[in-house]
Design a protein that fits this description.
Helices cover 37% and strands 21% of the residues. The chain contains four helices and five strands, in the order H-E-E-E-E-E-H-H-H. The N and C termini lie far apart (55 Å). The protein has one domain. By secondary structure, the chain is an alpha+beta fold. The strands form two sheets. The protein has a three-stranded antiparallel beta sheet with strand order 1-4-5.
Length: 103
């Protein structure tokens, strides 16, 4: 899906919000490829917070992509990332190594 949405890059996370516009414009939904009138109910998707690459998409397409896991939010992405060891774990490891080196 990454190539169809943003060229050859695949964003790790997306900002997603409702959008509405009163200007006479027509967008193309990056998720389904169909036309999207600006005055219709739709959503704005922004890859990794880069507003220069924002895209307008049908609400139904965004909801379907969210349900399938294709458009993770930043919070969801952060939860999936490895966490650094806690201070307690680093101290305990350092003490354990110091004790094993002296033995």
């Amino acid at each position: 899906m990454g190539t169809s949405l943003m060229g050859d890059t695949h964003p790790a996370w997306w900002s997603i919000r409702r959008a509405h516009n009163l200007k006479a414009a027509t967008y193309r939904c990056p998720l389904c490829g169909h036309h999207l009138p600006a005055v219709s109910e739709h959503m704005l998707i922004v890859p990794e917070g880069d507003t220069q690459r924002r895209r307008h998409a049908h609400t139904a397409c965004v909801l379907a992509a969210r349900k399938s896991g294709s458009l993770p939010t930043r919070d969801e992405w952060l939860k999936s990332q490895p966490h650094p060891p806690s201070v307690w774990r680093r101290v305990r490891t350092k003490l354990w190594r110091a004790n094993s080196d002296s033995a």
